[in-house]
Amino acid sequence: MTRDPQLGRRQGGRKNRIVKRRVGPANPAPPGQVGGQYTPLRAEDMQRIYDMAKRLLADLGMGEVPARLGRDLEAAGAVLRDDGRIRLPEPLVEAAVAQAAKQFWLHGRDAERSILVGGDAVHFGTGGAAVQTLDLDTGRYRPSTLADLHDFTRLQDCLPNVSWFTRCCVATDVADNFDLDVNTAYALLRNTTKPVATSFTLASHVAPIVEMLDIAAGGPGAFAERPFLKAHISPVISPMRYGEDAVDVVYECVKHNIPMSCITAAQSGATAPATLAGFLVQSLAETLASLVMVHVIQPGFPMVFSNWPFVIDLRSGAFSGGGGETALLNAASAQISNWLGLPSGVAASMTDAKAVDAQYGVEKGLTAMAAGLAGGNLIYESSGMTASLLGVSFEGFVLDNEMHAAIYRTLRGVEVSEETLGYDTICDVVLGEGHFLGAEQTQDAMERDFVYPKLADREQPVTWAETGALTAWDRARIEARRILYTHHPRYLSAEQDAAIRARFPILL
């Protein structure tokens, strides 16, 4: 027996449970659940894809190799072809895989929010470079702004199933590239303490922004000791060539100890084969080329192996983020990366829908579930993205957070034990009251085994009608507005903010 401080009298176990439910159960399926249950490829399939990818790199090689990288690759055993392409021999590729960082921390400025990347843990996060925002008031798209980026950052700060935040939209009202990179980084620092990520337009932008990160981290050099921001870089351009500006960014990020996601974003039937197997071969080869690049600069440097298969609708050439092929290819990509022992990054929840409607729900649920079940370590683009990545939605963020919770619960699976099998409970109920509602086992399972949505409607039709017949879009809009109205974090001290504003062109 215990004394209940809220009720002011001694209470038994049942009333204690009632009070606990009033507060709400702890999350029974938090981020980091184990994936890998869905295996679209057989072991021999993965071996053939990997062998063919290595053959492409060894024979065809990579084109448009920047001079600095070319020198480092040749010093490590790469061979320059007569046509200027550079061949990456199989031993070099295999050495890069063997010596790659298999697990590493993505730090949050709040250490409790850090996540370990790699192994079999699954985390949903964000990404994207949407140029349009679905307006909360009008329900129509408009150009994304710097104010939107700040709002999205503080909105997701309250969403427990978003493990890290990468800027989801581009501030189209900031014309200068340096100002854009600076103000994007500032929005992340000001509004969240989760692990964050951004991109750098040019290598020359990296060092100044590290100065800003040092201010937030506590002084010169502090960020490099515990980096809480990673870079999103696409150093390989499909098909099979390097991009000089992005490669330069890679060198600077290694210099400043910024972990990175090296992203391959080939498109089936356009910049990569339309056949799914051929696509997986080329896309894997290109992501391996990024890994080899990092390897020759600094072996074992933290890199997320971000092999993102993108699909186009071959009838029109338009990007398609929500179909079954996208779900399958990203799941297969995650499976191959994990089979190689590399920290895997894939993309999901990239619906082509413009509104929060049935298409939105189907495409997001299909692709996100497949990526989670396949064991993608970091699943990008998974929150808020709409309109084939051209748009982003505040309502989408809160709805997708709830979807992630359901997927994490699916990944957690079924725990089988004498307690959960419950022979004695079944016998007692059958011979007693005839239902399980009041059983102690049921009360325990309610707290331990079930995720309860806050937005999904489970009421009777009459109750739903009497309370306004709200749609999921309506309820999500109300919740997004509530968070944006109440949550105004200040994760920079007044002194830190003043120091940043004195040094950088902060526009908001």
Q: Brief description of this entry?
A:
Helix content is 45%, strand content 14%.
Structure explained in plain terms:
This protein is an alpha/beta fold and 508 residues long. The protein is 45% helix and 14% strand. The protein has two domains: 44-96, no CATH class; 104-412, Trimethylamine methyltransferase-like (TIM Barrel, Alpha-Beta Barrel). The chain has an eight-stranded parallel sheet with strand order 7-21-20-17-15-12-11-10. The chain has a four-stranded mixed sheet with strand order 9-8-23-22. The chain has a three-stranded mixed sheet with strand order 16-18-19, with helices on one face. 44% of the residues are buried. The model is unreliable at 1-12 (pLDDT under 50).
**Average pLDDT across residues?**
94
CATH class of the largest domain: Alpha Beta
Distance between the termini: 55 Å
CATH architecture of the largest domain: Alpha-Beta Barrel
CATH superfamily of the largest domain: Trimethylamine methyltransferase-like
Helix tally equals 19
Find the structural class using helix and strand composition: alpha/beta
As a percent range, the share of strand residues is 5-15%
Unreliable spans are 1-12
Query: What's the structural domain tally?
Result: 2
The total count of strands amounts to 23
Largest sheet, in brief, is:
8 strands, parallel
